[in-house]
Write a structure and sequence with these properties.
122 residues, mainly alpha, 5 helices, 57% helix
Length: 122
């Protein structure tokens, strides 16, 4: 028996994924611009992490920590909390809004009234 898969079933999820991807790119672009960094840096792999580290006031060598399994999870959490604090939000927003649900949190930072205040003092 020859079974074929109906590829039209993937069109709607594909369109939804594309829309979410474009929204996140636009949100990250705007967040970087609010922080005084070039918005286009949000679409360049690896460099976008380096720019994000500059925005939150962490040293550039932390980029290496993103390459270490399991360590990268902790570092991503720390950077998300620092990003929230850099925009005047609390640690809870950093964890829930940026780390766990970034597809919601970054558009809130980008298109909401949050302003960049600079890296939080350690």
């Amino acid at each position: 028996m020859n079974q074929t898969t109906d590829s039209s079933a993937l069109i709607i999820p594909g369109i939804i994924g594309l829309v979410i991807g474009i929204l996140l790119i636009a949100a990250m672009w705007k967040v970087y611009a609010k922080a005084g960094q070039p918005g286009w840096a949000a679409i360049i792999p690896i460099y976008n992490i380096y720019v994000q580290l500059k925005i939150v006031g962490r040293p550039g060598w932390w980029l290496i920590l993103f390459l270490i399994p399991f360590v990268n999870i902790v570092i991503t959490l720390i950077v998300a909390i620092d990003m929230a604090k850099s925009f005047g939000k609390g640690s809870g927003f950093g964890v829930a809004g940026l780390w766990l649900f970034g597809f919601v949190g970054y558009p809130i930072l980008a298109f909401g009234d949050a302003t960049y205040r600079g890296p939080a003092a350690a």
